[in-house]
């Protein structure tokens, strides 16, 4: 039996894109709050997206 895979790039609608952006922002806030508490063992911080444009973030995730 041959296994095959297909990669499909999906384009979210404007409304879906807005929701995904808000979810990413909320995730960054929660992560940063957890990172402030060393007892939780979370290291590093996530940055909020500058001026709402994800293309402004560094490609390697550092910033």
UniProtKB/TrEMBL annotation:
Region (Disordered): 41-63
Record's protein name: Transposase
């Amino acid at each position: 039996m041959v296994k095959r895979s297909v990669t499909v790039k999906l384009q979210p609608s404007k409304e879906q894109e807005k929701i995904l952006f808000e979810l990413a922002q909320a995730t960054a806030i929660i992560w940063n709050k957890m990172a402030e508490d060393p007892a939780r063992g979370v290291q590093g911080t996530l940055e909020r997206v500058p001026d709402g444009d994800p293309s402004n973030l560094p490609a390697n995730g550092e910033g």
